[in-house]
Amino acid sequence: MLKRRTRDFHQLSPVANALFHVIAASLAIIAVFPFLFVLIISFTDENTLARNGYRLIPEKWSVDAYHYIFQTGDSLLRSYGVTLFVTIVGTLISLCIITLYAYAISRKSFKYRGFFSFIAFFTMLFNGGLVPTYIVVTQLLDMKDSIWALIMPMAVNAFYIMIMRTFFSTMVPDAIIESGRIDGAGEFQTFIRLVLPLSLPGIATIALFSTLGYWNDWFNALLYIDNPDLVPLQSMLMRIENSMQFILQNSNNASLSSGILQNMPQDTSRMAMVVLATGPIILAYPFFQRYFVQGLTIGAVKE
């Protein structure tokens, strides 16, 4: 009788179920609509946009914005390759360092737990500043004009370490660690075989943050990269935008052809840059969502 009442209590009525579906669908549309609207504007003719303004269904479609951006030739594709490499390799390196560091300081048996926790926490409050960081990266580590200058400065984040330390401390039972020790597993083997499968939600969260950080990074390229073959996507799009601004600001210059100014898409090209910059990273969300669900459905301690 008690089980039946509990089942009836948790079961929603058809009206409430439909209402929650409508609310969820509305929130999903609100979240997706801005990107879809930007996508529509990027395929809108520039003259039509200037005449009619922003519309959900434009009067005339056009791919001039993308044609203008891809006039850079192989540079844009090369920038995509650089960004993909930096994002994938950087995320893997960041996950390895952060999870190992966080797991070590989450174990009460670790002798220097407090010392290394303080080191990580201290960097959240104070840092060496831009000039010392630049000197270390360019002179001490000699990573100027190197692909590693886009990876290593962002490989460790103290805030992510604290998140993973809290996750390991609260979500990984000590019984799991003890069972590994009883079976004769070492620390590293216990971490790989027992701790990581239980930590997929936390790892997926940190991986998503790291992926977004690497994908959207342009500042490190501005500081350390002069080689055009190593310019990432965000920095390349910024250079295209700066070139457009320069042409527009010097439109009175006689050396600039009026035809270039008339044929150059302005608003639509900016929207196209947003699509090119954010479109591929959207594909990462379903991948990480899969591991969120998988990690939440794994059981550890059975009563």
How would you characterize the largest beta sheet?
none
Strand content: under 5%
- Which structural class should the secondary elements be placed in? mainly alpha
Name the CATH homologous superfamily: MetI-like
- Just give the CATH class: Mainly Alpha
Q: Label the CATH architecture.
A: Orthogonal Bundle
Can you summarize this structure?
The protein is mainly alpha-helical and 303 residues long. It has a single domain, classed as MetI-like fold, CATH 1.10.3720.
Descriptive overview:
By secondary structure, the chain is mainly α. The chain has one domain: Orthogonal Bundle (MetI-like fold). 72% of the residues lie in helices and 0% in strands. The longest helix has 33 residues, at 74-106.
List keywords for this structure.
single chain; 303 residues; mainly alpha; MetI-like fold; 0% strand; disordered C terminus; MetI-like
Topology:
Layout: H1 2-10, H2 14-42, H3 46-52, H4 64-69, H5 74-106, H6 113-125, H7 130-140, H8 158-171, H9 174-182, H10 187-198, H11 200-216, H12 219-224, H13 233-249, H14 258-263, H15 267-282, H16 284-296
